[in-house]
Amino acid sequence: MTTAPRVGIFTFRPLDPLKDAELLHSWVTHPKAAFWMMQDARLVDVERAYMEIAADEHHHALLGLREGEPAFLMEYYDPAHRELAGLYEPQPGDIGMHFLTPATDTPVHGFTRAVVTAVMARLFEDPAVRRVVVEPDVANKPVHALNEAVGFVPDREIQKPEKKALLSFCTRERFFAVQRSLSATGVTA
């Protein structure tokens, strides 16, 4: 559980590929989610994609809840086996991450930053996780800014089959140092 002042309490639960598919479908096919690359997905495509993740020992999906209601999607994966396999030299304790906040008619100031902070805190709850790795599209400037705000350091551009990506890393130490610094200045997630 993570509490984000003025935003709410975030918790996580395993994603149910069938029960949550309709909700996910509305999120991933929205124009705001263009970088998720599922714009033309049918409901069955979303079900299939998340059933594959549910069956994959190296890739996991969680539904993020805000005050108990579905509010965002979090995925994490072993970069030695998924997404980044063969594209960089993974270190022990590396974990890959994706997050998606859905489009809304009533935006909450600071929500997306609070989400990425909660996602990172959730990943670092596992003491084996030493570093989080992300590979957003190079054109996704808002996500680059969010990633940097929580401690990610860009490394280099890489070419994935589906996109040119900005490979970035955030160590446990850097994430918690950024959080302490924000706390000391009175800035909240």
Task: Give a short synopsis of this structure.
The protein is an alpha+beta fold and 189 residues long. It contains five helices and eight strands, in the order E-E-H-H-E-E-E-H-E-H-E-E-H. The radius of gyration is 16 Å and the shape is globular.
Considering the chains and any ligands shown, give keywords for the structure.
189 residues, alpha+beta, eight-stranded mixed sheet, 30% helix
Show the helix and strand layout.
Layout: E1 2-4, E2 8-14, H1 21-28, H2 43-54, E3 59-66, E4 69-77, E5 94-100, H3 111-124, E6 131-134, H4 141-149, E7 153-159, E8 164-171, H5 172-184
Parallel strand pairs: 5-6
Antiparallel strand pairs: 1-2, 2-3, 3-4, 4-5, 6-8, 7-8
Describe the structure in your own words:
It is a single chain. With 189 residues, the chain is an alpha+beta fold. 30% of the residues lie in helices and 28% in strands. It contains 5 helices and 8 strands; from the N terminus they run ββααβββαβαββα. The protein has an 8-stranded mixed sheet, with helices on both faces. α1 (21-28) packs across α2. It is globular and about 45 Å long.
> What's the helix count?
5
Write down the overall mean pLDDT.
92
Rg calculated over all Cα atoms: 16 Å
What are the segments in which pLDDT stays under 50 over at least 5 consecutive residues?
A: none
- Total number of beta strands: 8
Residue share in β-strands: 25-35%
SSE order: EEHHEEEHEHEEH
Distance between the termini: 14 Å
| Residues in helices, as a percent range | 25-40%
Order of strands, main sheet, comes to 1-2-3-4-5-6-8-7
Q: Tell me about the biggest sheet?
A: 8 strands, mixed
Categorize the overall geometry: globular
